[in-house]
Amino acid sequence: MFQTQIAGAAWDDDTQRWIVTTSRQDRLSAKYLVIAGGILSKAKLPRIPGIETYAGKAFHTSRWDYGYTGGSASEPMVNLADKRVGIIGTGATAVQVVPKLAESAKELFIFQRTPSTVGWRGNKPTDTEWFKSLEPGWQWERVENFTNAVMGTQPEVDMVQDAWTEMMWVGVKGDVQTPEEIAELERIDFVNMEGVRHRIEDLVDDLDTAEKLKPWYGQWCKRPCFHDEYLPAFNHPNVHLVDTDGQGVERITAAGPVVDGEEYPLDLLIYASGFEVTTDYDHRLGFDPTGRHGVPLSEAWSDGPHTLHGVLAHGFPNLLMISTVQGGWGTNFVHYLSETSNHVAQVIAECEAQGIATIEASTQAEEEWLMVLYGTVAGVARYNATCTPGYMNSEQEMNAKSARNLAYLGSIIDYAKHLKAWRDAGGMVGAEVTSGR
User: Fold this and answer.
1) The CATH number of 6-39+287-426 is which of 3.50.50.60, 3.55.50.30, 3.40.640.10, 3.40.630.30?
2) What are phi and psi of 293, to 5 degrees?
């Protein structure tokens, strides 16, 4: 059902069905409700004072207005030729957007709170003959090879050979304990980041701009970016870096952003401020599922998420979730989503084969899974404590609730092993089931 949003979902214990309503006034009945609401799907605007007072044109990058900018995804934005454009944010989205804006805008102002790590991209055409030589199953072999490479389990052969796989995953291994092991990982981390900083010096002509673009934090404090046109864009005479020294934009007036007391009047203000990652799950979904006894998810999870494997939840029969909330997490989201989708499909198939009417997690299993998650977070917590604010460390605002809102921070391959071991054990240990319809 395309172009249709879920308005609400409520469990009916009498019929043992989910009653789902939509933005098109549909009323649907389903035995199982699988929620795949996206990982980075709900746009986030920055909490900048005065943001609502801006009088010029503004939009979030995920709501791009080609009617205003002109052009398309493959054509120049010709309507910006006489416009002063500002962009707030320098993360993964801005790294992609800035080079195209630099080509089109009369003037471009890039407002930076914290610089990104930007490595080489090296994009090139796929060799046709090489592609034809691949044996069946190459896709999954390549997926697992990549995951092993970026998680520090260096495979004998690097099948991907990109900047991701060149960087050893450091600071996140829960089994790294000794001072010597920690020191060695910190050394590797520093060497990798020094390479990034030297690359900036090589590509950005203005020394002052280059210094301000250098990231001074651990390589996994923020999601690394890879692009070959972002840094050279700062050499264009129409491109201006407005560095806020980690403070962010001070406020926004009707004319534009204010940084260190200076106002920057703009025609267009673009928010490259990303997506919600650590906010309440129901908020990100856009609806609040209601489980047994009319209890909404927001109430059941008022102290943080409660799940088994990030998939099943007590009080929400036949609700299966595919997300990073107490589920997997990794560089390659497709890998994680594939593993979890497979698990959900097999759980439903097994329920049908056994004549199970309802399935949900037990409260004991939920707490046991939380302890498994905590077991993967030790190295990450130590590492993130040294990082600048960002979604990796909940903007450095961790509390008891956000401590439950974590993912499995080991390898996706290890997470998948947990799921498979649970299925292979049989008996659906930790799940409460009823038989019948």
Assistant:
1) 3.50.50.60
2) 60, 25
* Beta pairing partners, 119: 226
Delimit the CATH 3.50.50.60 region(s) of the chain: 6-39+287-426, 51-121+172-271
Provide the whole-model pTM: 0.89
With H, G, I as helix, E, B as strand and everything else as coil, classify residue 99: helix
Topology, domain 51-121+172-271? FAD/NAD(P)-binding domain (3.50.50)
CB 269 within 8 A of CB 257: yes
Cα–chain center distance at 396: 17
Cα angle vertex 265, ends 263, 269, to 5°? 110
Query: Which tens digit of pLDDT belongs to each residue from 163-177?
Result: 888 875 443 444 556
Interval 36-66: pLDDT, tens: 988 888 899 999 999 999 999 999 999 999 9
Q: How many CB atoms lie within 10 A of CB 29?
A: 10
> Amino acid identity, residue 355?
G
Do 50 and 253 form a contact (C-beta atoms < 8 A)? Answer: yes
3-state SS class at 396: helix
- Identify the three-state secondary structure at position 231: helix
Per the structure block, which two tokens stand in for 295? 């209890």
> Residue 318 corresponds to which tokens in the numbers above?
């036949």
Distance set, CA 334 to CA 2, 44, 143, 146, 338 (Å)? 22, 23, 9, 12, 6
Q: At what angle do helices 412-425 and 333-354 cross, to 10 degrees?
A: 10
E strands of 301-430, at which residues? 319-321, 356-361
What is the SS3 assignment for 263?
strand
Structure tokens at 191: 């060497």
Phi-psi region of 84 (alpha: psi -120 to 50; beta: other; left: phi over 0): beta
